[in-house]
Known about the structure:
The protein is built from 25 helices and 27 strands.
Amino acid sequence: xxxxxxxxxxxxxxxxxxxxxxxxxxxxxxxxxxxxxxxxxxxxxxxxxxxxxxxxxxxxxxxxxxxxxxxxxxxxxxxxxxxxxxxxxxxxxxxxxxxxxxxxxxxxxxxxxxxxxxxxxxxxxxxxxxxxxxxxxxxxxxxxxxxxxxxxxxxxxxxxxxxxxxxxxxxxxxxxxxxxxxxxxxxxxxxxxxxxxxxxxxxxxxxxxxxxxxxxxxxxxxxxxxxxxxxxxxxxxxxxxxxxxxxxxxxxxxxxxxxxxxxxxxxxxxxxxxxxxxxxxxxxxxxxxxxxxxxxxxxxxxxxxxxxxxxxxxxxxxxxxxxxxxxxxxxxxxxxxxxxxxxxxxxxxxxxxxxxxxxxxxxxxxxxxxxxxxxxxxxxxxxxxxxxxxxxxxxxxxxxxxxxxxxxxxxxxxxxxxxxxxxxxxxxxxxxxxxxxxxxxxxxxxxxxxxxxxxxxxxxxxxxxxxxxxxxxxxxxxxxxxxxxxxxxxxxxxxxxxxxxxxxxxxxxxxxxxxxxxxxxxxxxxxxxxxxxxxxxxxxxxxxxxxxxxxxxxxxxxxxxxxxxxxxxxxxxxxxxxxxxxxxxxxxxxxxxxxxxxxxxxxxxxxxxxxxxxxxxxxxxxxxxxxxxxxxxxxxxxxxxxxxxxxxxxxxxxxxxxxxxxxxxxxxxxxxxxxxxxxxxxxxxxxxxxxxxxxxxxxxxxxxxxxxxxxxxxxxxxxxxxxxxxx
Length: 727
């Protein structure tokens, strides 16, 4: 960067104020007055403010402790259904994101070559005018479809989508195809919903977890539910090639061979159907396609699955019987980060069907409440312009059953590179770091080179921002309002705990200002953030001031769905579809079908990745506190295998795939299969603007190969094979 950015550059404060800022942002008049009016803080600036966390997608309720006008502690809000008074280590560290010394606090405009990290400071007026003019230029010259938009799912998503759809582009990239496309599409084809809610009550007897490392996951409340279920005596059978923290608490750990989860579950279905262990009355009343399923799984015996999975046939048979005996108080967990192989869609279908055969609906599974509520108001707006251009991610012309709103992110990137079916020229990126998250980092950087203009909205200079033309500084989640969030029978508020530092602004403000410059002001009909929320609250008959006081409002029955009544599913048949006619009509198998996964060569390993308790990759990437308490990331390798290769713990090794190469240190351990290696994602940053994270660890995205499931569009993250040798 051409000039060092500090808080002193942006805030006109004296020596005393600068000293206070070093400890934490003082509450200025606007926020302080609001906090006092709501009864949060006293005249001395001490007290508590309710809001919501954003250190992962779980959005737990929090209470910020204010001392002398500074945020000094974050705790869970006991009134929030997710947190229930708890807050995980990531959530408690959230104020370190707000006080990150590497925060971007003013708009930046690139002055050097892309990737050099040379920027100059700019005013909001200059930066927004530049972004609007470049987007308009691209639209006028190449069509609206030449602008690509992408964002990680967040509470301000409706406003981001307003900007996208009002602009007229079909090209929308989300992170979901990198995580759980297989699960979402499988559940949609089976139940007609993305993901049922799971009930962890005192009757739950048996939990089958497939690669869902819940004890190190981002689902705080469900992690607590699992721990309580274990404490009450529920049996947990856990399938994972790696001995994780979840495996350590499971009743039984099965180190299954990667890519063969499908074989295991097909064999379970075989036993349960052939031995008539399923709930016949539930299946007859509430499902379609049983005969087709029975015919297909008849050939998938435990003896067939045993050599594929590495799990003995008698173990598979025993688990099938145990699961059936525990039904309907038995849960097969779909998991989240499940798009690991090109056959993962069929795995997820098999898991969903396994639950259906047990008749456990409304016992351990039920309809999940969504984040959208018709009970909330919204600003008026016109209809979106008609879009006729093909989507660059191949939905639906290449991926006919993938929902528009989740898309196929890696395919979008690939087609930016190829220019097929047309060339993209601009990319608007909000709260997302595709250079780190997409597989084959080199190809993502190549895609950036194909574009005329890139703009990023974020709180730090992440790797994607490092390669951008304009960087717009967003306020942190402790500094801004976001749209309301319905959870259960309440509607929760994220409100500012402190005033935005420097010149950082909320997404509600950024999208409105940019929309007006693009001639799209009719899609952003609110005066400011508070006006937007007041319009949301109007149908509820409560004021914003009332909601500020306790952080939520009671929602009427319509906001959270009411009683379910008769069992129905949003499928074409209105029932659970064991056989999917929708899949069959577009040329895919209507029932789960075995597809042989590719195998590494003799000198290669499966490359596994997965979250750890202190990192979510995006929100934690530069958090000083979490870095302090996180172990240095190393490549896991089976200890015996390492010894055979002449390797030992802390050796530097060279890891090579067909798309890239990295260097990292080794951890020799018994906690992983001999044919696998593992690395934690979210390290190996390219941006020197992330002073805490830069130079720490290696990047999994630099070696991950792009493999896309043709049905769900999920990225097969574990289908990358690597060689490992001493560096």
